[in-house]
Amino acid sequence: MHILCTAFTQKRAMGPTGSSDDADVGSLEEDFMAIIQPDQIRNIALIGHSGCGKTTLAEALLFKAGVTTRMGSVPEKTSILDYTEDSREKLSSLDSAVCSFQHKGVHVNLIDTPGSASFCGAATSALSAVECGVLVISATAGIQVNTRKMMERARDYGIGTWIVINHIDAPNVNLPALLAQVQEQFGTKCVPITLPINGGKGVIDCLTATSGSSDLGDVGEDHTALIDAIVGADDVLMERYLGGEVSEDEVKAAAAKAVAKGEFVPVFFTNAKGNVGVSEFMDTLLVCCPSPVSGKRRVLVEGETKTEVGPSVDGAFIGQVFKISTDPKSNIKYLCVRVHSGKLTPDMVVKTLREPKGNRPGHTLRTIGAEHKEIELGSAGDIIALAKLDFHIGDTLCTGKPGMIAMPSLPKPMFALALESKTRGDEDKIGGALKRFSEEDPCFVTERGTGGELVIRGMGDLQLRTYLGRMAKHYKLEVDTRPPRIPYKETIIGTAHDIEYTH
After folding, report:
1. pTM above 0.85, yes or no
2. Which of 121, 188, 151, 132 has the alpha carbon at shortest distance from 52?
3. Taking phi first (over 0 means left), then psi (-120 to 50 degrees means alpha), and beta for anything else, what does residue 305 get?
C-alpha cells in the first residue's frame, strides 16, 4: 500500500497533462485497507455562483489537510480540481470534482461543483451524495442568481446547508450589509459561527469565544445568538438551556442535528486565497456538519415498497451513481458512487433496475481530482469510484434485489441547437460522442427534431458550445449549427357554413 500511495504522489505531481504546474500532492494519512465508520465521515458539496471562490476554498482545505504540498491556484492553472483543459482555459469549473482529506481522525469527502447555470446539472446531481451543501458567496458580488437557485435545490432535496462568505479581504466590502441580506434572503436561521476581525485579516470563533469585538460588532452577543439557534431546534434542550443546565459539549452535540433539520445554518467568513478562516471551517466540520448517521436518510423504492436506507456497514450494499467522467486519453469511464449502506468489494456483483444481471466492479477507487487510486472496499457513508461500468447518473446499485433512490429534481434543458455534419459519413461518430456527453451531464439531451434533424438541448449556449468544442478537439468531428426547425401543426378551430365542395 505504501508503494501505491508513492506512485500516486509522483504521478500527480506531474499533473493530468504531464506538466509539473499542478499543486504537489502529499501522502494521505489514511489506512486504505480499513473500514471507515459512518459516524467518522463528513460529506459536503461546495455550491454557489461562478466566481465566488469554491475551488479556491477546496484547494485551501486540501493544502491545510496536507493532501497537497502547495496550494493550487485557478488563475495560475495549477488547481488539481479544475484539471480539464476546458476548465483551465475558461478559469472556471465546468464539472464537479471529487476529493477527500483527513482532519483530526475524521474522513471528509468534498465535491467542488461548477457555478455556471449552464452546468447546474452536475452541481444538482452532487447533492445526492452529501449531507450538507456549503453555499459559497463572494463578499464583492453578493447574492447572485445561481446563489439563490442552488440554495433552493439543496433545501428542496432536504440536506443541511452552510453559508461561507468568501473574499472578506476585498476592498470596500460591506460585510454587515451582506450578512443582513443573507438573513433576509435565506432566513434568520443563518447565524454567524465565525466573525471577521482586523479588516478581514482573521476570524474569531463565536462557538468558543464568549466576549470580544469583531468587524461586525460584539462577539458576546453573537455567541448568545449562536447558542440560541442551536438549542432552539430541540425543545427538551431548549428548556434545559433556559434553566442554565446545558453544557458546551451538549450544545456541540446538538449542532449537527440542528443543521440536518434545517433549523440552523452556520455562516462562516473566509478569505480562502489568504488561508483565513480555513482552519476554523475544518474544525467546525467535525461539530456542525451532519454525518451519514445524523443526516438525511435516503429511501429505496422497490415496486410498491419504500424502505429507509440506514448507513449500516453490515447491511446490504446500496449505492448511487452521481457523477460520470471519461478520461480523454485512456477513454476509461469512471463512475462516482455514494455508498448508502453495506460495503462493496471488487469481486461483488452490483445490479440496477436497468441492468438486473449485474456486473463486477473489478476495482474500487478513491478520487482526488483527475487521479484515482485503488482501495480495498467502499463502506457505508463513503464516496468511491468505479471504472469501466456501463451505468448512468442516478442509477441505484445493489447487490440484492435492485431498487431506486430518487435524485434531486433537475431543471429542464430549454436551449437548443440543430446540428449537421460537415463531413459525410460522420453521423454515427457524432452520435457516439453526443451519447457520451449526455451520459456525463444529466442536463444535456440529444434528440431527433422535425424532419429527423439532430438536435441538442442544454441549459445555455456556454454548455452546448463547450461540448461541441470537445467533440471537435477530442473526436475531430466538425458540425454546422442552426436554430432547430419549429414543427408546424394545424387543427380545426371553428365551424364553416355554405360549403360548395369538400376536400
Report:
1. yes
2. 151
3. beta
**Helical pair 54-64 and 278-288, crossing angle rounded to 10 deg:** 90
What is the 3-state secondary structure of 341-381? ECEECCCCCEECCCCCCCECCCCEEEEECCEEEEECCEECC
Give pLDDT tens digits for 216-258: 999 999 999 999 999 998 888 998 888 887 888 899 899 999 9
CA dihedral sign of residues 56, 124, 41, 352: negative
With CA atoms as reference, report the closest residue to 95 among 110, 114, 78: 114
Please state, as a whole number, how many other Cβ atoms lie within 10 Å of the Cβ of residue 437.
Answer: 21
Say if residue 6's pLDDT is above 60: no
pLDDT of residue 14 exceeding 80, the answer is no
Asked if 313 and 38 count as a contact pair (C-beta separation under 8 A), the reply is yes
Percentage of the residues of the chain whose pLDDT score is greater than 90: 78
- Is 278 within 8 Å of 202 (Cβ atoms)? no
- 3-state SS, residue 37: coil
Cα dihedral 483, 488, 493, 494 sign: positive
Nearest CA to 147 among 174, 176, 178?
Answer: 178
Cα 243 to Cα 16, 208, 237, 238, 246: the distances in Å are 58, 20, 10, 9, 8
Q: Distance (Å, rounded) from C-alpha 363 to C-alpha 365?
A: 6
3-state secondary structure of 125: helix
Select from 134, 131, 132, 113 the least CA-distant residue to 123.
113
Q: What is the mean pLDDT of the chain?
A: 90
* Residue 220: half-sphere exposure toward Cβ, Cα within 13 Å: 2
The amino acid occupying position 207 is L
Lookup: cell for 315: 447491511
The residue to which cell 474569531 is assigned: 204
Q: How far apart are CA 396 and CA 402, in angstroms?
A: 7
Q: Which of 450, 453, 454, 456 is nearest to 487 (CA)?
A: 450
Cβ-in-10-Å burial (0-12, 13-18, 19+) of 51 comes to: middle
- Is-contact 441 119, C-beta < 8 A? yes
What mean pLDDT comes out for the span 259-280? 96
As a residue count, the chain comes to 503
**DSSP H helices in 248-359:** 248-261, 278-288
Q: For residue 29, what pLDDT band results from cuts at 50, 70 and 90?
A: very low
**CA 380 to chain CA centroid, nearest Å:** 18
Task: List Cβ neighbours of 486 (8 Å cut-off, separation of 6 or more).
Answer: 450
- Cα→Cα distances 207→97, 210, 229, 239, 267, Å: 31, 8, 11, 20, 12
